[in-house]
Amino acid sequence: APEKVVVVGGTGGLAAVLGVGHVADVAALRARLDAGETAPERVIIDETTWRASFEGQEPAIALPSMLQTETARVLGEVQALLSDARLVPAALVWMTSSAISTGADDGVGDLVHAPLWGLLRSTRNEHSDRVVRLVDVDEPSSEQLWPLLAADGEPELAWRNRRALAARLQAAGPVDEALSETSAAALRPDGTVLI
């Protein structure tokens, strides 16, 4: 790592793999800054090791409560990171594991952290002057992750089967004439359009 980096959260395994410092949570990071430690240039928030424990409850009943609790916790951490003037220059990178799907054969395994992606996309829109990134991995302990975590030109990346994936728009094929006529009729000024 060519810069001062700290991993926040997780078990410390990711920090060990990357060869960087580790703190338990955002409060611990801010406490270190209060004690005079230099602010990091990159903060990696490790959300890969959290696993839901339903403890005999029905998942359909327990999951909504877990979603609410976890999303509220992450929102609090986002607000704390963004409001701390000492961290304004720092790139903020949230790392999840299986919280998004990259295709038909890649399901979402971590439903609790899936909403985090929407929350952080909104955060990035509201704080366009800050580097706020998302990286989703299938191998949280891979040594090959550092380039993904440092690629600030890509706001969202996924790591699947030892390959980096980025979302891209793709040109659509030829437009079916019947579909085109139907779409035009649906967009008449005197009609109702649902967006």
How does this structure look, described?
The chain is of the alpha/beta class. The chain is 35% helix and 17% strand. The protein is built from 6 helices and 7 strands; from the N terminus they run E-H-E-H-E-H-E-H-E-H-E-E-H. A 7-stranded mixed beta sheet has the order 2-1-3-4-5-6-7. Strand 1 (5-8), helix 1 and strand 2 (21-23) form a beta-alpha-beta unit. Helix 3 packs parallel to helix 4 (114-126). The radius of gyration is 20 Å and the shape is globular. The model has no long low-confidence stretch (mean pLDDT 84).
Blueprint (SSEs and pairs):
Layout (H helix, E strand, L loop, with lengths): L4 E4 L4 H6 L2 E3 L2 H9 L7 E5 L12 H25 L7 E7 L16 H13 L5 E6 L8 H5 L5 E5 L2 E4 L10 H10 L9
Parallel strand pairs: 1-2, 1-3, 3-4, 4-5, 5-6
Antiparallel strand pairs: 6-7
Helix pairs in contact: 3-4
Short structural summary:
By secondary structure, this protein is of the alpha/beta class. It has helices spanning 13-18, 26-34, 59-83, 114-126, 146-150, 177-186, and strands at 5-8, 21-23, 42-46, 91-97, 132-137, 156-160, 163-166. It is globular.
Task: Provide key terms for this protein.
alpha/beta
Give the count of helical stretches. 6
Shape: globular
How would you write the strand order of the largest sheet?
Answer: 2-1-3-4-5-6-7
| Distance, first to last CA | 44 Å
Structural class by secondary-structure content = alpha/beta
Q: H/E element string?
A: EHEHEHEHEHEEH
Helical content, roughly? 25-40%
Low-confidence stretches: none
Instruction: Give the mean pLDDT.
Output: 84
User: Could you tell me the number of beta strands?
Assistant: 7
Which strand-content bin applies to the residues? 15-25%
Radius of gyration: 20 Å
Q: What kind of oligomer do you see?
A: single chain
Largest sheet: 7 strands, mixed
